[in-house]
Amino acid sequence: MLAIIGGSGLTQLSSLEALRREVSRTPYGEPSGALTFGRLAGCEVVFLARHGYGHTIPPHRVNYRANIWALKAAGATSLVSVASVGGIRQDCVPGALVVPNQILDYTWGRAHTFFDGLDELVRHIDFTLPYDEEVRRRILHAVREADVEVIDGAVYATTQGPRLETAAEVDRFERDGADVVGMTGMPEAVLARELELPYAAINVVANYAAGRGASAQNVRFERVEQVLHEAMLRVRNVLAHLCRQ
Ligand code: HPA
To answer: 122 falls in which pLDDT band (50, 70, 90)?
Structure first.
């Protein structure tokens, strides 16, 4: 069963025929909200709103461990994360869809592992390729079927938030090799890997990152909602093709 975590702009799947909602508890506490089980384009999926259904949980307070644990326990066999980002690379303009292939992690203080070494041997998982190649391939296939344009391959920088970045921070991320910046990619990706839940992402560029393009002087979020709304229609279309595979 495909699991979908929706971020800003995707707190519910309007095309999802919801069959049941399930409140789950995990050894790590409660997920961001009830899991919604339903049918999307005729296929069973489970959906979770990362920031809660009322969008009340900021990125640094999301219980990433509970979210991933609950989806795995619910029977998810792959996970697609949808998340908005700021665009750094020139082609990552507002409205663009991006399927990232690498991650930089600038977050701190988040519960970022299931392997805390408390009651088991220390474990070091491989994370060379942070996104599952098979799930990426399936997303890209769905993208072609849906006749939607995406940017295949980008380095996603995860920043702590909830504030946006300074222009100098974005310059630094760019020097480090980042193409887009968001606040939730980590530890979500690594926790999925630790539980062996194949994970990949679709990023929606909501705005130029600080100091770039129209955000040269400030990041204006007024336009973001409109950009996200339009882009999420394309994302929903991709997800419908994805779950039919
Ligand atoms: N920075 C960080 N996270 C984001 C941004 C941004 O500019 N836009 C959407 N999520």
So the answer is: confident
Ligand 1 centre to CA of 183 (Å) is 7
Give the closest residue to 236 by CA, choosing from 90, 97, 75, 88.
Answer: 97
The verdict on the CB of residue 48 being under 6 Å from ligand 1 is no
Residue linked to tokens 């339903």 = 38
242 Cβ inside 6 Å of ligand 1 = no
Ligand 1 touching residue 88 (CB < 6 A):
no
Determine if ligand 1 sits within 6 Å of the CB of residue 151: no
Average pLDDT over residues 13-19: 80
pLDDT bucket at 244, cuts 50 / 70 / 90: confident
Cβ pair 201, 158 in contact under 8 A: no
* Candidate of 60, 88, 165, 232 to mutate for ligand 1, largest count of ligand atoms within 8 Å of Cβ: 165
For residue 127, pLDDT beyond 90: yes
What is the longest distance spanned by two Cα atoms in the chain? 50
The answer for residues whose C-beta is within 8 angstroms of residue 202's C-beta and 6 or more apart is 80, 81, 82, 83, 97, 98, 99, 139, 150, 235, 238
pLDDT in tens, 176-205: 999 999 999 999 999 999 999 999 999 999
pTM of the complete model: 0.96
Domains and CATH numbers, the chain: 2-243 (3.40.50.1580)
In short, whether 211's Cβ falls inside 6 Å of ligand 1 is no
Task: Report the pLDDT averaged over residues 94-112.
Answer: 98
